[in-house]
Amino acid sequence: MSTSSDIKATSITVDTSLYLVIGGGEVIELTGTGTPLVLSGSNTFTVTNSTVKYSGTTATLAGATYHHLTIGGTGTYTLPAADITLRGHMIVTTGATVTKSASNKIIFANVGTHNITGNAINSDLGILQISANGGDSTLSLGSAIKATSIIIDSQQTLNFSGSNTLTLTGTTPITKNGNITLSTGTFEFIPSQASGTVTIPAIDFYNATFNKSSNTFTVDSGTLNINNNLNVTAGTLDLNTNDPTTTFFKLVTIDGTLSASSSSGLTIKDDWTNNGVFTHNNGEVFVDPTAKIITIGGSAVTTFYDFTSTTGGKTIQFKNGQDVGFAGTLTITGVTGNRINLYSDSLGLKWNINLTGTVDLSWARVADGGCAGGTNSIYPHEAVSDVGGNDTSCWKFVGKGGGGGGSEGGAGGGGGAGGGGGGGGGGGSEGGGGGGGGSGGGGGGGGSGGSP
Question: For the chain, which residues score pLDDT lower than 50?
């Protein structure tokens, strides 16, 4: 049997050795419940450039090869135990609820682009696989989708269309043998298992959200880039077991636990908000701001181990009224004329350093630096400016005075009787004041200041 016109039927059965061929853009709409499409034995079911639509109140889909597939209506639809193969696009309407079977796959198997739109609130599509023989295939998400896992075969590509979310519930949610090319969209990991470890590949994400309090999300070795925002909403994001090299390019928000690598660097380029737990594991955090100003804050105290920033001309703000810890080496090294600023996020309100390790601080400006109880003293290099508001019980800036200019150029030494006061200190980074005149002669001129 073949058709070149639309068909609307309660059910269709194709018996052994028979065939049903649909081609040319037609729609077969199945309105019945139960199993409205029955394929028996060695029949032939061929759909070319056409659509099969299930619209009954409840139905179980047939495991078959479709071109376009629409799961419509307002009922509950069950995926079959056998795989579904798609040559075209898939639509799940907003009123439909889709229930996965234990092991079925939805395989996108045509060369070219497949679009999938669905209802992530009510539907779990099971295992999605991008697998086109003989060419490149792209799966593009046109709405929020929920699935158990996704498999990207060699030469295949996953991308997102718009700011959509792919929620994955499996313990091995991504198998990547092909490409993931993302400039938008979010991967959200919410395992269905009660507890245990979820394995995350070290790949490039755009946004990533980890959200199950009883699970640990362990990232494989390699290079992990979160090119936009990271949210550890619940559970533990484990970077320590396999030590991926990691860069967070935009906002980092920790409400669960972030466990850093002990041996591979973690780079942050934007704001850091810790409302949960950060475990440093004696690792190093590199702060390489993309923006002019970034803020280290949140409601929880963050203790870093090694904390390094060498990008001059940037400002690192710390949350006022809160301690920030450095248990290893705090390294802040700007360059001449292009310092790094360590400021409070509110002018005049102190942020509190808790240094239990060592410090290498040069070509920087510090303002509103407070001292947490038990902190080591900080002895900055002379090319560090005390901008004001700092607690001198732990911040030991190089003093100004005659002779060698300090970080802001020393004031001239006071002249003694019988001799003129010495000149201001040698040109510091911001120039010294003139020497005080003695009774015997006028003070010398101030040192020539360098650039601030």
Answer: 1, 400-452
